[in-house]
Design a protein that fits this description.
Low-confidence stretches: none
Strand content: 25-35%
Mean pLDDT: 95
Number of helices: 14
Bound molecules: uridine-diphosphate-N-acetylglucosamine
Radius of gyration: 21 Å
Shape: elongated
Strand order of the largest sheet: 22-23-1-24
């Protein structure tokens, strides 16, 4: 039985909150430790369910990991490994486990990873990951629910991605680190987490250039060495708190944030009627006036992030006017809509668009987190709703938010969690 979050809405949030290290940086970076035969130390690693699952994948492969949650420090030694196979039980739990295929293939010339299968927010194919690995000389065999890849020696190649997939960019980048020659990824993802992965690889002696642009070049090296790395702050967690301040008409300061990573959200929150002040590693946000309707279209970075779409939708249910939200990254990322409707929101879905007719009030109700970001959006809706909201299937939220209810409670909200 999963935990429940219970919220009595109506309190404007006030105070300061600190963002953790980015989940979407931690996962590929932990996978990339497989490339190195020496010990690596990672800092600012939060004790998220997804992070712990990635450590389990490494342990299954025979890698030694030592995690100290209080220090948010993870030490990995992948010098001796006993397996190159990631099992269904773990890959099914977290799709990002598939990120180990690139580094395993690069270092051992072989990897066997369970097929990730479907996922609540879309089909999420892996064709682009495989296209890249094949172009570099890997043989790919799919059967019995597994993908097996073999390559005597990967070689550099020019690889064009039909869509700037974050995971495919990361997997191909990791595979290319120990390949012979230069690999070029064209139409690569430009997300800050891709840049963080490249920084980590380079800290271990890899040669990745151009990360953060649409063309990444990886010059193959023969081996990597020991390194320490601190992951970047989580722009999605920071953004979730910013929307929490906006939806409750509150005033908060978010610490440990890189404002340059928040440009699309800041722009949309200002359009929606918030005051936002940026400092070096801080963002202050407040809303005094009414929420204004705004249109949003999710896009690959530096466009508006799909991982903040549901939270913004929660805010816009209370806007003066009608907003149109277009989801163009995932084909089925409106699972939260039915739950928001249970709280009185007026939302119509037309293909990839959600038309949100703002109302003066929404109302507390029992609802269910259908996925990670949907769970965050329902929590935000609950903070602003009249009455009590109870959110079920909270384990989805634990995948990506560390001490979520505690942090929001510390900002003055009436929120609690019961196991
Ligand atoms: C990552 C993030 C996730 C975020 C997403 C988009 C991690 C661990 N997860 O997921 O939180 O929502 O980026 O910003 O970093 N696609 C293909 N073929 C492929 C790969 C992807 O068609 O081989 C499509 C997907 O179906 C999807 C789109 O590309 O429609 C974006 O997916 P992608 O960027 O790969 O997302 P993830 O890396 O899975």
């Amino acid at each position: 039985m999963s935990a429940l979050i219970s919220i009595t809405g109506g309190t404007p949030l006030q105070g300061r909150v600190r963002t953790e290290g980015a989940k979407n940086s931690c996962l590929p970076i932990i996978a990339a430790t497989l490339l190195c035969e020496e010990q690596v130390v990672l800092h600012d690693i939060p004790a998220l369910e997804d992070v712990l699952t990635m450590c389990q994948v490494l342990n299954f492969l025979g890698v030694e990991t030592e995690y100290t949650p209080e220090e948010k420090k993870l030490t990995v030694f992948a010098g001796s490994m006993s397996s190159v196979e990631a099992p269904y039980a773990l890959v099914r739990k977290m799709r990002a486990s598939f990120l180990v295929i690139g580094p395993l293939l690069a270092r051992f010339g072989r990897a066997r990873v369970s097929l990730p299968g479907g996922c609540a927010i879309g089909i999420r194919p892996i064709d682009l990951h495989l296209k890249g690995l094949k172009a570099m000389g890997a043989e790919v065999i799919i059967g019995h629910g597994f993908i097996e890849t073999v390559a005597d020696k990967l070689h550099g190649e020019r690889i064009y991605l039909d869509f700037p997939s974050v995971g495919a960019t990361e997997n191909i980048m990791m595979a290319a680190v120990l390949a012979e020659g230069i690999t070029t990824i064209e139409n690569a993802a430009e997300e800050p987490e891709v840049v963080d992965l490249a920084r980590f690889i380079n800290a271990m002696g890899g040669r990745v250039v151009g990360a953060g642009t649409d063309t990444i070049r990886i010059h193959g090296v023969t081996s990597l060495h020991s390194a320490e790395h601190t992951v970047i702050p989580d722009r999605i967690e920071a953004g979730t708190f910013m929307v929490a301040a906006a939806i409750t008409g509150g005033e908060i300061t978010v610490e440990n944030v890189i404002p340059a990573h928040m440009v699309p959200l800041i722009a949309k929150l200002k359009e929606a009627g918030c005051d936002v002040i940026e400092e070096e590693a801080l963002i202050h946000i407040r809303r005094n006036g009414p929420v204004r309707a705004v249109d949003i279209k999710t896009l690959p970075y530096p466009g508006f992030p799909t991982d903040l779409q549901s939270q913004m939708m929660a805010l816009l249910t209370l806007a003066k006017g009608t907003s149109v939200i277009t989801e163009s990254v995932f084909e089925n990322r409106f699972m939260h809509v039915d739950e928001l409707r249970r709280m009185g929101a007026q939302i119509k879905i037309e293909g990839h668009c959600a038309v949100v007719a703002g109302r003066d009030k929404i109302f507390g109700a029992p609802v269910k987190a259908t996925d990670l970001r949907a769970g965050a959006a329902l929590t935000l809706a609950g903070l602003a709703a009249q009455g009590c909201t109870e959110i079920g299937a909270v384990h989805h939220i634990d995948r990506g938010y560390w001490h979520f209810t505690e942090k929001i409670a510390a900002l003055g909200a009436q929120i609690s969690r019961c196991e």
